Amino acid sequence: MEKQYELISRLYPITSNQSSIFSNLELWIELFAEKQLCAYNPQTGEVTLIRKEQRKFDQLIKQILKPLNPKDLETTSTIKPMEILTQTLEHLEKLLIEQFPENSPIEFGSFGLEGLLPITEMHSVQQKHSDLIVQNVKEMFDELLEEDFDFPDWRN
């Protein structure tokens, strides 16, 4: 008899620290679970893991996200925190693939990030700098187009 699986999607906050640049980001994870490991909410139509399995899974995710030090995620530059987040997500992917391989009662499907990163001061300065360069190039081309050029006649 062929096993029947249900798709389960979960969202986990990256950090609970509201001053972090990642405070609006959530980790989105999809799993496939055998029907006997699933619980159904008829009011919302939501499919979840049964409590015992859900607790184990939640603990695993919290354990993986715990190394994201709130102090590291508070900087105004997103470069260092993005490196930290990328490393954590790579570690998470490896762990989920190992813990929930194909043909197991719970299989890892995929994961990603949901939410928006705020535009930091650094990004704002970079954008202004880029806009200034574009404006200067436009002005140079406008000046060139206004000049009268004497092009040689190449037909002769």
UniProtKB/TrEMBL annotation:
Q: Which domain of life is it from?
A: Bacteria
Q: What is this protein called?
A: Uncharacterized protein
Which species is this record about?
Answer: Lactococcus lactis
